[in-house]
Amino acid sequence: GRRVIYEMNVYDFTSQGTFAAAEQRLAELRKLGIDIVWLMPIHPRGVKGKIGSLGSPYAVRDYTAVNSDHGSLSDLQSFVNTAHELGMKVWLDWVANHTALDHVWVSSHPEDYERVNGVIQHPNNYGDVYQLDFSNEEMKEAMIDAMRYWVNEADIDGFRCDYASSPKIGVSFWQQAITGVQTNDRGKHVEFLAEADFTSWDCDQALYNAGFEYDYAWGF
Questions:
Q1: pLDDT tens readout for residues 68-84
Q2: Is 195 noted as a catalytic residue in this protein?
Q3: Which of 75, 195, 197, 204 is catalytic?
Q4: I want to staple 50 with a disulfide (CB 3.0 to 4.6 A). Which of 55, 129, 147, 158 is the partner?
């Protein structure tokens, strides 16, 4: 059946910019007919090389942390619980292709990043992010563990996957991730939406079989 997704920038949804304040307005969204609340990246944003005063939500500094401007993990848990009580699901925006320049892995696992002549690469000339190396199996496992963390800890229902069609990521990672996240502590099925159009000429057609339930269908 038809489902309505609401994309939420937590900074902008309320004047406070917090999960707690947003939680107070969830009933309004349900009344509007919203079925799924998709939260734009909730992680701490990169400070090094940041764009604008807040930095980009797509320059993630830590995959398993909450942006303190929005509140705490318990605030997110409360937000999700209230959404569930109202009959809505909550999806997280997941940025797999790249991280902030000051992501925790840059210092702890520098081997996780793609290099040319020893220099970490910026995808698409985005100066505030570094390209991850998807030939690194340990990095991929850590990524999937981080996704599973949010299901286990915050009862997240799904992921909207940023730049899912990146040629650097590859279809095999998504197959691995989508399957791997299903083995969570809650025993729940986790949904996946790809920011990609599986039928477009510039998209890897194999993505169609990666396990995503939804795509953007721009062409349609």
A1: 999 999 999 999 999 99
A2: yes
A3: 195
A4: 55
